[in-house]
Design goal:
Blueprint (H helix, E strand, L loop, with lengths): L5 E7 L14 E2 L2 E2 H11 L5 E5 L10 E4 L7 H11 L6 E6 L7 H12 L4 E6 L2 E9 L3 H7 L7 H6 L4 E5 L12 H8 L14
Parallel strand pairs: 1-4, 1-6, 4-5, 7-9
Antiparallel strand pairs: 2-3, 6-8, 7-8
Helix pairs in contact: 1-3, 2-4
Length: about 200
């Protein structure tokens, strides 16, 4: 599957209650998390990139931004808003979260390749455990959206259909650790991960 038929979807609507500031606007190694996440998807081969915002509204270069007025209800509403904004030309979407800045673009590329090889659903794994990003084929958008409620995103769909999931090992190209607190932000800012550049385009 070639580039334009796989869109990217970045969920960046949260208020960051434990962090004290909306995560989208937080700077990580000199770059806002929302910009870093959108770049991750673009560098991984996704086009267009859709960014769902909520607690804060910001401009994201080279991305389609979608406002989620129901962002406070949890990730599910943001996933539904994002999926509905994916252009009809996209045969699949790679979903990423703004608060996981150490995930590498190669993880996205591997998911896109899995789709090209026939996967309907593909999930990046680390240490054998499924994490993010996640690729969903358009044929599953409706059910994914229907099961996304509260703070549950695609997880409910993935658990309901384990036979559909193609695991894609990404241990060597990033780390799925997320930023929930100021301590997390400070700690992850100092971590070096193979295949993940420190604020450079080499992620």
């Amino acid at each position: 599957m070639a580039g334009p038929s796989c869109a990217g979807l970045l969920l960046a609507a949260g208020g960051g209650s434990r962090l004290g500031v909306p995560k989208a606007a937080v700077e990580f190694r000199g770059e806002r998390l929302v910009d870093r996440g959108a770049r991750l998807l673009a560098e991984g081969g996704c086009s267009p990139v859709v960014v769902v915002l909520g607690a804060v509204t910001v401009q994201v270069p080279d991305a389609i931004t979608v406002g989620n007025p129901d962002w406070a209800t949890g990730m599910g509403s943001s996933l539904r808003a994002g999926l509905s904004a994916v252009p009809p030309s996209a045969e699949a979407v790679v979903i990423a979260l703004a608060d996981q800045p150490l995930i590498g673009a190669e993880a996205v590329r591997r998911l896109v390749r899995a789709r090209r090889d026939g996967a309907g659903v593909a999930v990046a794994t680390y240490g054998g455990a499924p994490r993010n990003p996640v690729l969903i084929g358009r044929e599953h958008f409706g059910e994914v959206a229907g099961l996304a409620t509260g703070d549950v995103g695609a997880r409910a769909f993935l658990r309901a259909h384990p036979a559909l999931v193609t695991p894609v090992p990404c241990d060597d190209v990033g780390d799925p650790a997320d930023i929930d607190t100021p301590d997390d932000l400070a700690r992850l800012s100092e971590i070096g991960v193979p295949g993940v550049g420190r604020g450079s385009a080499s992620r």
